[in-house]
Each structure stands twice: as C-alpha cells, then as structure tokens.
Amino acid sequence: MNKVKITDTSLRDGHQSLWATRMSTEDMLPILETLDQVGYNSLEVWGGATFDVCLRFLDEDPWQRLKIIRQTVKQTKLQMLVRGQSLVGYAHYPDDVAEKFIDKAADNGIDIFRMFDALNDIRNLETCMKAVKKNGKHAQPCVVYTISPMHSLEHFLETAMRLQDMGADSICVKDMAGLLAPYASYELIKTLKDNLQVPVQLHTHYIGGLAIATLLKAAEAGVDVVDTASVPMAFGSSQPPVETVVRALQDSERDTGLNLHKLFEIANYFEEMRKKKGFSRGVTSINDMQVFEHQIPGGMLSNFISQLKEQNAVDRINEVLAEIPKVREDLGYPPLVTPTSQILGIQAVLNVLMGERYKLCPTEVKDYVRGQYGRPPLPVKEEIRRKIIGNEEVITVRPADFLEPLWEKAKAESAVWAKNDEDVLTYALFPQVAAKFFEKRANNKLGENTERKVSDEAADKTVKQFKVSEPAKKTVSRGDDDMNINDIKELIAALDKSNVNELEMQRKDYKLALRKGISASTGTVSNKTPGEDITAGQSNTENADDDFGLYEVVSPMVGTFYAAPAPDADQFVHAGDRVRVGQTLCILEAMKLMNEIKADTEGVVADVLVKNAEAVEYGQVLFLIKKD
Ligand code: CO
Questions:
Q1: What are phi and psi of 608, to 5 degrees?
Q2: CA of 208 to the centre of ligand 1 (A)
Q3: How far is the CA of 553 from the centre of ligand 1 (A)?
Q4: Ligand 1 centroid – CA 480 distance (Å)
Q5: Do 582 and 491 fall into the same domain?
Q6: 373 inside domain
Q7: What is the Å distance from ligand 1's center to 176 Cα?
Q8: What's the CATH code of the domain at 290?
Q9: DSSP conformation letters of 575-619
C-alpha cells in the first residue's frame, strides 16, 4: 500500500475547534513557508467559520487572507470547507451566488473544495460540485458520519457511490462529532475502498479520545488521506496531532514519510503564538468521553448547560440529554452538525422546559420540518409533523430552487463600497457585517491600526505591520461546526437577512417596530414574579386560571418579551383584544431563538403585564385573559 497522505487543518478546523477561529493572517504568515515545505497532501486554510470571523471579529478581508496564503504557499494544495448550498454561512444561498463564490475561491487559490450537507442531502451539493468541476478544481464531497438505526454501512456506501457518480474527485468521510470508533472506521473505510474508484479521505475529531486509533485502523483499511492538526491545535474538540500520527505510522507500510523535525518546528511556532495570545489547549472532559453513550458532540453539550443556566434549570440537563435522541428520531435522524445540531438541541430544551413536547417550536424547527433545509435521512414522523406545522405543505424539491437570484441585487446594493466581485460576494453572504466592514475600510478604521489596509501588491509587507489582535474571548470548546452561543446569534443575524417566510417577516417587523419605539400596551408588572424558587417545578409555569377568574399566560422560560401584532390590525395584542386559540400572543426570545407564545384559550385580553422588549422570568405572568 502507498504511504498515508496528510491534510493539515491547523489554519481552519484546528483553530475553529479550539480558538473560536481567532487566528489572524498575521499569526499565520511567519509559518506559511515552513508549512509549505512539509509535503502535506493539502493545507485546509479557508471556509467554514473563517470567512465570517475574519469580517466580524478580526477586521480582515477573508479574500485577502486567501490571496496572501496563496502567494506564500507555492507548492502545497490549498483546501477549503464549503457548507454545501450555505457556502460559508448559515442559510442556503441562491445558485448564482453559489456559482460565483466557487469561481472566485478558485481564482484566488483554492485547489480542493470539500463540501458537505448537514442532512447528507446531496441535492444541496449539486450546484457547488458543478461549479468546482467547471473551474477544473478538485471536488471532494463528504459523507457525513453519524450513528442511527438508518445510518448503516450500506447507506454510507450508497451516498458515496452517488457522489462519485456526480463527479467527485475524492470522497471525505466527515466525522464532525468524533463518533467513528476504530473498528467501525476500519469497516467503513474498507467498504468504501473496495467499492469506489476515487481516493478516500478521513476527517475526524479527537473529542472522546479515540481519533488516533480511528486513523490507524483507517490506515490499515487503506485510507488515502487523513486530517490532523499541529499539536498546539490538536486534541480536545479538534483533530488528532500530526506528530503522533506520523510517529505511529513510522516504519510501517503506510509510513507518511513526513519529517518530524519540521513538524516540531511548526508546533513550536504555534505553541509560542498560543501562549502569547492566551489561546487554550485541547482537553478531553469526562462528558466528552461519554459522547459514545449520549452521542452529543462536546460543544453542543456545553451549549445546553449554558442555555439551561440561562433558564435557571440546569438541574434538568439529564432530562434534556434523554430528550435529544427522541427528538432526533422524531425528526428523521439528522446528523448533529451545523445547523441541525442547534435546531434539535433547542427543541429538546423547549420540550423539557415546556412540559409538553413540541408545544413551542422555533422558526428554524418549523423550517426544517417544512423541508427548507433539505430532505432528512428519514421522513419526519407524521404526528410530529402535524403538531409542528399542521397541514402546511412540505417541500420535496431542492430548497435552493425556491431562492430568487441574488447576485445582481447584491451588486447594486453594495455598489458604494464594492471594489470587485469578491466584495460583492462578501456582501451577498453577510450583508450587515459586510456593510460595517466596508465602512470601516473606507474610513481606514480597520482595527486600531490605520495602516492595516492590505493591497494586493504590498500584501506581505503590510501584513507584518498588523497590530497583534486581541486575545480570543474564552469560549466553550466545540467540535467542528458545532455552534456556540455567539454562532447562534450569528445564525439569527443570518436568518434576519434571509427571505425565508412570513414568520421571519414578522420578526423583522417586531424589530423594526422596536426601533421605532412603538411599544405594546403596557400595564403594571405582575408582582407574582416567581424568581428562583420555582426553577425545578413545571406546575408553576403552566397557564392557569387565577383566583379572580382570569386566565394567566405565563412565561415558559427566561427571555425577552416581544409583543405580537394582532392578526387583523397593525397594533400589537393589547388589553381589550379578543384572542382565539392558537393565536400568537407574543414572541419570547430565549436561547437566542424566537419562540411564539400562543393562546391556548379563547377570550378577551384583560391585561398585558409586560412591556415590549422587557426581560421576563421563568413563570412570570405575561397576559391575563378573561375567558368567555
Ligand atoms: Co471538522
């Protein structure tokens, strides 16, 4: 057998998994040449969260980063991660933008495009695959690995064969949650190698601690390429360390042939940088090691804990953990990766906190059930679908078929700032963030250093003048593409600009109304605020009649109250309005998602006890309704 080839993920997944993607181009620059000399199969340097984080937090133009890396890395292939039709964002983009994005990424130096869809719905990869092939670049679609009764060896093989038929130049097994155990890895890779003509690459995460063994068994089974990171960016929720894998395969028939001295030179560079910037090392917690029992990726678990803390209900974590597999089953066993991990996670938390399953469903869950993310591995259970979206139609075509072209519109809207097509793309992907970035750039205010402007010609000179950016905020460590709270905020922001549906429109309306200072009818804040003493019980959070024959609608969670417009008026629901069963009374923003609170009784609103945009407690009375 040939030597195992290695892709280095340090400049993308490595720091995305451990350092919230906060490594700057300046941090990377001094080590690029050395990385180029190692003889890696490829360097994964772009895509995933790097694009967004460059603009939003690092005041960097992601396209400039790519250009700079390409200028320095002359021999090794550059690789990026594409979230299928969501590209480097969180919602599907129209085909014209997807095509243009791939064209420009290719122009600026990407050789290998790794593409995945969270649902393994390969229709969501079609447009990008075609564009990659058209550019004569390497198309590497992923088989997303997960464990469920329907994710059999046959299913993975069938998916891989279809991807090969679509023109894949290689296939990546993407195990974002670190669930691929060593012997399962052997079976899977062997099956793929026996049946596919194209090379097979394995991407896994260390999380529970099995990844090195998993890679070794994959090597035995004939895997062509494996992903690793330099040791300061390895372990924990990141990849296994290259140094260990190279050493483990040394003198075997699959020896990687990589020079360990060179690898340690690189590791020392990153280690110094890590210390200087206060970035943390990858560690494996007991919870992470239990990933094989609950199957919940590390980052997702930390998110649950912080969400439940926010809800004063952290003691209910075990109920939530038990609820996750049930929700996953109900919703057709989606793999837990962005954005499905967030969608499922929030629903599980709500099911537990509400005391009734699917009583409250965020827009994202409804959209998922409507088929707007693609086709789940199995159909959503009939009765669950009806409970979540009633008789609404489920789309069966590729979701992006519904999206209007966006390129020309984005070009027109960004004309004041955009200097080239890359700028237009940046705007098309993240309009608000891009606008802010362009404004700063125009006013020479990127970062604190006015010399930060990077021009093509002077790129590597000016980059050296960059000021050291602020150390990354401490964030929960997480698996690849598992979101943390900030990501969920970003998701909301991304959804804000997407067309999606009427609920989105409503959400925009609330925010608009809030900005204009229109507030809901207000009353005195109930003195029945329960506070912490009721955190565990459900009885106090159930809507009920009070002592005066008024029906109390209480807040099922800690959050922010947004008044909802009355159905036949421009006004918000206020005292004196008649409400019907199922009518939206208000929106509660909790756990970074918008949740509709609906009337479960008919009657006349006697009082609204909360002001618009006010924080509410778990169990706090929001409305009093006089029943008929
Ligand atoms: Co990953």
A1: -110, 120
A2: 14
A3: 43
A4: 4
A5: yes
A6: yes
A7: 5
A8: 1.10.472.90
A9: TT-EE-TT-EEEEEEETTEEEEEE-SS-EEEEEE-S-TTEEE-TT
Same domain? For 430 and 564 the reply is: no
Q: How many angstroms is it from 479 CA to the middle of ligand 1?
A: 7
The pLDDT of residue 312 is 77
State the residue range of the domain holding 429.
409-461
For the chain, counts of helices (H) and of strands (E): 24, 17
Residues 526 and 440 in one domain: no
Tens of pLDDT, residue by residue over 188-213, are 999 999 999 999 999 999 988 999 99
Within-domain flag for 194: no
Is the residue at 169 inside a domain?
A: no
Residues 441 and 566 reside in one and the same domain: no
**Distance from residue 102's CA to the centre of ligand 1 (Å):** 20
List the shell of residues around ion ligand 1, using CB closer than 5 Å.
13, 480
Regions of the chain where pLDDT drops below 70: 294, 297-299, 302-303, 447-543, 545-548, 565-571, 591-594
Judge if 491 and 535 occupy the same domain: yes
Residue 346: the pLDDT is 84
Of 19, 26, 11, the closest CA to residue 467 belongs to 26
> In the prediction, which pLDDT does 530 show?
29
Do both 437 and 545 map to the same domain?
no
Summarised one tens digit per residue, pLDDT across range 349-360 is 889 888 889 988
**d(CA 46, ligand 1 centre) in Å:** 12
Give pLDDT, residue 542. Answer: 62
546 occurs within a structural domain:
yes
Confidence at residue 501, expressed as pLDDT on a 0 to 100 scale: 36
- Nearest-angstrom CA–CA distance, 566 and 584: 8
Residue 301, CA distances (Å) to 21, 210, 285 in order = 19, 19, 11
